[in-house]
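Notes to self after the Tuesday call (sharing in case useful).
The group wants a holo model before anyone commits to mutagenesis around the pocket. I volunteered. Ligand is flavin-adenine dinucleotide. Logging inputs and output together so the record is complete.
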Amino acid sequence: MKRMPEALAEGVFDLLVIGGGITGAGVALDAVTRGLRVALIDKGDFAGGTSSLSSKLVHGGLRYLEHGDFRLVYEALHERGRLLRNAPHLVRPLRFVLPFYEKARVPAWKFRLGLVLYDILAGAGNLQRSRASTPSRLRQEFPHLSRKHLRAGAEYYDAQMDDARLCLEVLRTAALRGAVVANYVEATTVEKNGVQACDRVGGGALFVTAKQILNATGPWSDAVRRLAGDDGEPLLRPTKGVHLLAAHRGLSAAFLLLHPADGRVFFVIPWLNKTLLGTTDTLCDDSPDDLRVLPSDIEYLLSGYNKYFDPPLSESDVLGAFAGLRPLIRARPGDPSALSREFQLHASPSGLLTVAGGKYTTYRHMAEIIVDRVVQNLGLARRCRTRAFPLDGAPRQPWSSFFPAMKNDLTRRCRLDEETASHLVSRYGRRAVEVADYLDRDPALGHRVVAEEPDIFAEFAYQRDREMALRPDDFLLRRTRLGLFHPELLTKKLAWS
Ligand SMILES: Cc1cc2nc3c(=O)[nH]c(=O)nc-3n(C[C@H](O)[C@H](O)[C@H](O)COP(=O)(O)OP(=O)(O)OC[C@H]3O[C@@H](n4cnc5c(N)ncnc54)[C@H](O)[C@@H]3O)c2cc1C
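Result:
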């Protein structure tokens, strides 16, 4: 995947996608696999917006059942199954534990009913049936879980991903199929037959000509509609979600918990050998370019964790924090957590199509519906091909046999330790060999960037050459995730060029 902004100005594209988050990436892949000539631009790095700031869950969303969003949960659970097959290196099953406490906002019977429904809605794609757990079993496996008023529990399975890497992988797959994709190219004016854009690296202006333009800019969607002269009512009512990262707390499963302050669902999730706490959910009018983690956000998440676990976490245990804006559609008034995760497709008078809303898990399904509409607008008849479509790094054999074989190969051939080899296979899938090839040229690239993390310098070289990483944040926050829990690296001079 090479950055060639000059290719954007060549000829007429069938579809130009503005926005390289997961929504735009999914649409680009769907469209290019139907034979359309596709371009995609992002004003910053790919996945630099919400798509690297999520809870990293590929899930139906047990809590949406409470709002009666059965269709959304059904679709998301089916997409979960497809993603586990199409990207097994980046999406993995994850066990969730639900402890039931006396006088909780959601009574145990309601959770049990929800879990039965969740199993049914997942159908043949269910990972494992949910099951009841006893307080003694919970206490045995999770000695740090609060016992006070603990009455029972349950467990179920969902899936987990690396959100920024999955978005990149979708884009990379689209680029390999012929889509022209470029980061750091900003749409500045949207016209009927194309977009005036600015190359934020090279500094030049360019015009991308396209028959159909799609605005897939997540929380920026209303601002980009205005670039096309559409001054209609805003489509979005964004909410801010903050996550914290702390050192691994020894949890062998994720926890779905109810916050003591407001009864909202929040998660404690093992991720990349760290603990991810999230999330807050507050209505937010701040610009997506200027989001901040406030002391009150940190306090809220720590108090949620500390209600359920001992020893408690304090601010000094927080390794990093990040905030994202949920691009939710203005569907229902009131409680932000009740705003819909459904999506809408809006046509501006200029012909610009805007996708508003949605969630990460359902990106492929959304893309299918959007490209159906694009194909219809173009007067074509082409069917979607992404339902069973392995992403670029996906192995051609089952993950259970591919993973140990590839890991052994890397440890033997490149003399990598087991942890580093496992890490490379889990991140790059069958492309791990391409990263390891850099070690043949320069064995020093096998050194770790930070002694206690498995990321090695060869990854930076690979990301620079093959994954369009340009700036320190691209390497540290999205291609690797080191900067999330080692923020000191963001200001250090590292060897990536
Ligand atoms: C806190 C939080 C937790 C979440 N957790 C989950 C979860 O666990 N599971 C799940 O399924 N969903 C989750 N979601 C929802 C999911 O993350 C989002 O729905 C999804 O990432 C939105 O992707 P997007 O591509 O629409 O937007 P974004 O990822 O924000 O991408 C929009 C892109 O448009 C670009 N852009 C903006 N203006 C321009 C311009 N003028 N020119 C060019 N490019 C432009 C931006 O740079 C940006 O990269 C969560 C969301 C939040 C906020």
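Two things stood out.
The chain is about 30% helix and 25% strand.
The two ends are 17 Å apart (CA to CA).
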